[in-house]
Recover the amino acids of this structure.
């Protein structure tokens, strides 16, 4: 097949999907990129650059670069707010999709923020992470009071750009694709069932919440009262390496990400005292040894996973753990606790795999194409964190490798 006539559908516009879109487009392939949320960039676009006085190679900037490149390429057709509903046929595949009309017109919205001020429901209006690329503001239909019969139009009435249109129209469409790339990524573990008070204590947050807080305020502010947190605990392996939950794997990125975040906080808040509860530390990158040595000098490292967490009368968090050094139960008090949540298979994997006449492996992640078991149908591929926990750099190289396999497949067919 001449690549100029080839068409590939990519499902998921995280760093893996964006990398693949840009690379395939570079080969002359037409690409349809489907993203179910209103925003592009997946999880990686939500992360902070962790550089202090020098780059620490966290990879956050890679996502922005991939986003810019994919959105600028004329061969890439982007469908945000879109779910693939059915896949039929074989080479070419027929893909039926449904796109919810965007409630905020990205071309008109200037990101002034008046809609956030007017909205009576916390969290109903979402702020995007890449102000210069794609939509920057989106409204959640499931929370918006216009759609629950309350007919609230406060945001629409206040918008000086006339950018908000509260109509629940959805459009359906179909495309033909010669190959499909599943880049549906991962889901972060929801720690509500752990004995850490997540969802009950405002100052117990996940690592993704911490990324958002740091992005919004530069320093780590307590959600309960907006005070800068002085005593901060990180609890590692929440939802990973947990046989009881059926998640025995290490999520690979959490130790590196949390230690870099801890050092970033310390560089911005001189008085921040950071404690790190861990099982063991996963190495990352060639600079790991010097980074880790330096981190250990400034961070209290406790090789234990807390058993319980309580809120004190002064709205502090008391963490109870078994200290292997003293062989005794110990307590420490913190202003905020960050739970480093594990990376789980994306919630949609099973449904998507069924649609593609494929199957996830026993962990729930997608098997890599060409694996000995769980062979994919011809022309169907998966890459990035849809196939298992991985860093941004690994997601990029996984997507690039998958594109290479797809190009071979397309030229041979
Ligand atoms: C708290 C935290 C900190 C991290 N820190 C670092 C770090 O410092 N360095 C690092 O290298 N990595 C870090 N990571 C890992 C990084 O986020 C991943 O490597 C990266 O996001 C993987 O990209 P991806 O595109 O494979 O998946 P994702 O980012 O999960 O993107 C998948 C995309 O697919 C979309 N999607 C899913 N299902 C569908 C569907 N059915 N239809 C349409 N769209 C769909 C999703 O909405 C999403 O946009 C961190 C992760 C977390 C949670």
């Amino acid at each position: 097949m001449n690549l100029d006539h080839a068409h590939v559908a990519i499902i998921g516009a995280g760093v893996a999907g964006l990398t693949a879109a840009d690379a395939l487009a570079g080969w002359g392939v037409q690409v349809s990129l489907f993203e179910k949320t209103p925003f592009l960039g997946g999880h990686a676009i939500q992360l902070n650059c962790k550089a202090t006085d020098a780059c620490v190679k966290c990879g956050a900037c890679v996502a922005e670069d991939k986003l810019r490149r994919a959105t600028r390429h004329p061969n890439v057709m982007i469908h945000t707010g879109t779910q693939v509903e059915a896949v039929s046929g074989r080479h070419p595949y027929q893909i039926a999709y449904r796109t919810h009309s965007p409630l905020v017109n990205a071309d008109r919205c200037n990101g002034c923020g008046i809609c956030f001020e007017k909205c009576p429901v916390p969290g109903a209006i979402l702020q995007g992470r890449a102000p210069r690329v794609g939509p920057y503001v989106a409204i959640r239909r499931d929370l918006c009071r216009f759609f629950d019969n309350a007919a609230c139009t406060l945001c629409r009435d206040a918008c000086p750009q006339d950018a908000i249109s509260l109509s629940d129209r959805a459009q359906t469409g179909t495309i033909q694709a010669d190959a499909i790339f599943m880049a549906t990524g991962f889901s972060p573990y929801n720690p509500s069932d752990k004995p850490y008070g997540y969802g009950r204590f405002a100052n117990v947050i996940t690592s993704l919440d911490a990324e958002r807080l740091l992005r919004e305020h530069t320093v780590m502010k307590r959600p309960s009262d907006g005070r800068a947190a002085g005593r901060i605990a990180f609890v590692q392996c929440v939802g990973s390496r947990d046989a009881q939950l059926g998640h025995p794997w290490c999520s690979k990125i959490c130790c590196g990400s949390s230690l870099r975040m801890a050092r970033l906080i310390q560089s911005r808040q001189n008085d921040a005292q950071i404690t790190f509860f861990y099982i063991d530390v996963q190495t990352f990158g060639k600079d790991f040894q010097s980074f880790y040595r330096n981190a250990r000098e400034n961070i209290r490292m406790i090789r234990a996973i807390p058993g319980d967490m309580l809120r004190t009368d002064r709205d502090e968090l008391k963490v109870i753990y078994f200290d292997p050094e003293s062989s005794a139960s110990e307590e420490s008090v913190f202003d905020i606790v960050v739970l480093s949540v594990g990376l789980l298979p994306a919630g949609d994997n099973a449904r998507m795999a069924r649609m593609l006449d494929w199957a996830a492996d026993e962990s729930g992640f997608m098997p890599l194409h060409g694996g000995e078991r769980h062979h994919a149908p011809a022309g169907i591929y998966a890459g990035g964190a849809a196939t298992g926990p991985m860093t941004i750099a690994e997601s990029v190289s996984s997507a690039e490798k998958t594109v290479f396999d797809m190009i071979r497949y397309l030229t041979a067919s």
